[in-house]
Design a protein that fits this description.
The protein is mainly α. The chain has one domain.
């Protein structure tokens, strides 16, 4: 009985830690989306002022599909 209580306590603690990690990751993803939108708006402002962004493809940042972490070696055929 005591061992089961210990295991349940460990599971609760680990679950709490994992929830915190998920919340941090979700917050990061939201921030990344905000930054992509900001880049897009800044590129539009540059274009409206007759200038171009120094980073190639900066305006398309929010539109591009994310690149696979493995460099695309496991990409699915189209």
């Amino acid at each position: 009985m005591r061992q089961q209580a210990t295991l349940e306590s460990e599971v609760r603690e680990r679950t709490k830690e994992l929830r915190q990690i998920v919340n941090v990751m979700a917050g990061r993803e939201n921030r990344m989306a905000d930054l992509k939108l900001m880049i897009k708006r800044l590129c539009t402002q540059l274009e409206d002022a007759g200038m171009t962004a120094q980073v190639p493809g900066a305006k398309e940042i929010g539109n591009a599909a994310p690149e696979p972490l493995d460099g695309g070696s496991n990409a699915r055929p189209a």
